[in-house]
Specification:
With 92 residues, the protein is an all-alpha fold. It has 2 helices and no strands.
């Protein structure tokens, strides 16, 4: 019984000694977390800038599409006028 108690105590001490993190481990982990927080902050700023840039590009694309649609309508109107003028000149 005494041997079992001594063995249990040795196992418990060994488990506690190996299972605990030292302060240097915690400091290293804290440094890594701080570094990652900085990187996350930078990535978040980059994502916000990319989102703003995409919104700007989208609005410019919409304006270009509207201009192209107007130009196509003007071209169609001009072609219709030219066709009417040609038909009118053929009747004389």
């Amino acid at each position: 019984m005494m041997k079992a108690l001594k063995l249990s105590a040795v196992v418990a001490i060994a488990a506690l000694a190996t299972g605990c993190a030292s302060t240097s481990d915690l400091d290293a982990l804290d440094a890594r977390v701080s570094s990652l927080e900085g990187k996350v902050s930078t990535a978040s700023a980059d994502a916000a800038a990319a989102k703003a840039s995409a919104a700007d590009a989208s609005s410019k694309a919409a304006a270009a599409e509207a201009a192209a649609n107007r130009a196509a309508q003007y071209a169609q109107d001009t072609n219709s006028k030219l066709d009417r003028m040609f038909k009118k000149s053929q009747h004389k």
